[in-house]
Amino acid sequence: MQYARPLPHYLVSRYSGWKATTYQDNKAWYRRLAAHGQHPRAMIISCCDSRQHVTSIFGADEGEFFIHRNIAGLVPPYSPDGGNHGTSATVEYAVTALKVAHVIVIGHSNCGGVKGCDDMCSGHAPQLLEKTSFVGRWMDILRPGYERVAHLPDADRARALEKEAVLVSLENLMTFPFVREAVESEILTLHGLWNDIGEGGLEQYDPAAKAFVPF
Amino acid sequence: MQYARPLPHYLVSRYSGWKATTYQDNKAWYRRLAAHGQHPRAMIISCCDSRQHVTSIFGADEGEFFIHRNIAGLVPPYSPDGGNHGTSATVEYAVTALKVAHVIVIGHSNCGGVKGCDDMCSGHAPQLLEKTSFVGRWMDILRPGYERVAHLPDADRARALEKEAVLVSLENLMTFPFVREAVESEILTLHGLWNDIGEGGLEQYDPAAKAFVPF
Amino acid sequence: MQYARPLPHYLVSRYSGWKATTYQDNKAWYRRLAAHGQHPRAMIISCCDSRQHVTSIFGADEGEFFIHRNIAGLVPPYSPDGGNHGTSATVEYAVTALKVAHVIVIGHSNCGGVKGCDDMCSGHAPQLLEKTSFVGRWMDILRPGYERVAHLPDADRARALEKEAVLVSLENLMTFPFVREAVESEILTLHGLWNDIGEGGLEQYDPAAKAFVPF
Amino acid sequence: MQYARPLPHYLVSRYSGWKATTYQDNKAWYRRLAAHGQHPRAMIISCCDSRQHVTSIFGADEGEFFIHRNIAGLVPPYSPDGGNHGTSATVEYAVTALKVAHVIVIGHSNCGGVKGCDDMCSGHAPQLLEKTSFVGRWMDILRPGYERVAHLPDADRARALEKEAVLVSLENLMTFPFVREAVESEILTLHGLWNDIGEGGLEQYDPAAKAFVPF
């Protein structure tokens, strides 16, 4: 790969600093993790957004969470058509190989992907409708959620759609036979969260209230 | 979604601690990020593996890196067929919307996804060959890499294949027209890294040496 | 300007080396910074002293910190009298235009400016008392700090005064209406640090302890 | 100072990494610098802009450059009126106490301060004309430079004004008696540079050509 370039120097410096401190102080744990494999207790599905670090929010150590991050933290419906389904592969690996006890889907405020979906579905982003738009085709997953909030005024709809993204993903997770089976066997639980980036807020979906409720 | 369950208490406790300390101490920055959006300098593509925290290795603050994580940190080839291509959507968003300056692909030692690919391609994991195996179909992306290391003895092949995963992803990145264009316009650089989890090592691909070289 | 002279050759050589390496490796990021502007997360106010590189201590990349450097890292009190107040202009620009989330004031050991203030206030540097002494008139800003440590023995006073310089600057920052307003709105936080150059030490001011405390 | 807050955690981590690597590897030099004082060969006057690190461009070690950074890297005219003149104090300290051999003024492309001056002088930023605008009053220093480029078309004027900022500062430096005397005694030389951030370019003022010329 002749295009690969050297890493920026400041990142090399920071890595060297990490190696001399965090790694050095935790060497035994890193070696144990390498030798005995990972045994994460939970899978977290979140957005790629640079502003949300679930490892920070949940004080995570190396080895605790198996983390999949994609645009808006979406899970597509079960579709075993032989294609390269990256998200479905992560769910399959987490549930059937790692046997995590929890799958946590976490959405967030100010989500650019969800905003794009809102623009696309409300007719304000024709470029996202094109077949060649990967972001548009990915956000198609959220269309069922958009239908449920389309009647809301503009000001409320984006936030409501961010929360629908979590619910659509949870619904789609249940279409995977191995997920449904694990949930029904009570060896796996699903959780839906929404994080307010600016205010540091966290809400979880409460099926009884049929709403996201702050902690 | 009637299946959603309350978050385990220990995670609620950790979140509360984070809110009272890290969030409280950085409230101004979180609010700025929410109000003014993200301007990450780099996209990082890494594995979901719970043992690898690139934010820790690179001393990253919220806002610095747009992070996509999937099984083995793979990028599929460009394929605008209208399907739900989650990884392609993340690359498109990072390069065309966020205009990141760097895309860093980082593989790692002891990678379960790569091990599965090796087993599958060498005939030891027939279940991964089935059409319904999402992990198998995802790891198909790495088959061109397997071909290049298939001749190696078992003991060396897994590690070599982990590094091939980085190279295949870099090669596939260059099949995306908007990536190639940005690279050739010198507004984007690609970087390939491999991290030894147990030893805290970091190597980067050097096109001149045609090999991964430690820092 | 007929007095301008050619740059010393060793600096031209070093620049050429930087251009061929660091710039070349980071060209994409520099171009992004030029095209899309700076979005620094923090302002750092430090001394001009050649021995203190905060970009090194904090592993900073281009684009991260808006840095003002003057003698002793002092901030004068708010005084909108129409004069050329360089430091006040930097604070105004950082807080109201760039909307940084943090202002970090960092003092240091062995500070020549602070030593001059100590000499001046204790009667050992009459030349600094003259109206024409720019250094003396600048260090007048620190006189309230000197009053608080004047009773200390000579051996302890210089270091105590270095730390007072940080506190006086923080106090003066709060006299700027736009700083106070941003702090009270919790979109800006102030931080006071002191760096031991010889020992590589770093202490931060802890209001509860009313003292600088090492990390 | 009850407003001081703890330093963000990622900065503490990075500092710890620096302490364990860069400091540890250079401890002897840092201790020598602390014990024997600084002997910088040059003073550099540059902008606070986060995108310009002269220590990187000139491969500077701790101890080499006495660096003053303010908005646009300006030097006001000599004015010994007893006020707090921060920039004048830095020049006085560098030339009379440290006896630097060079004063290098370096401007840069995409300078927000210079852009503000252009807007203000061309009547597009009335708020900068108010007595209470510290940025406006600071940029008043550049008005003589604006007069010289006012006739240029908008597209060319901003860049020309960035270079005028360097020339005005050099002119003002020569109004300081101790600077003029040192220059005329040939124990000090002045240098004017302009840096193109996006392209990594560097030009120096050539009095013979009466223009900035690339290296």
Automatic annotation (TrEMBL), chains A, B, C, D:
Which reactions fall under this protein's catalytic activity?
Answer: hydrogencarbonate + H(+) = CO2 + H2O
Q: How is the cofactor bound?
A: Binds 1 zinc ion per subunit.
A biological process (GO) of this protein is: carbon utilization
**What Pfam families does the record tag this protein with?**
Pro_CA
Family annotation (InterPro entries) = Beta_CA_cladeB (IPR045066), Carbonic_anhydrase (IPR001765), Carbonic_anhydrase_CS (IPR015892), Carbonic_anhydrase_sf (IPR036874)
Q: Name the Gene Ontology molecular function terms of this record.
A: carbonate dehydratase activity; zinc ion binding
Q: Which domain of life is it from?
A: Bacteria
Q: Which PANTHER family match?
A: CARBONIC ANHYDRASE
Assigned protein family = Belongs to the beta-class carbonic anhydrase family.
Q: What is this protein called?
A: Carbonic anhydrase
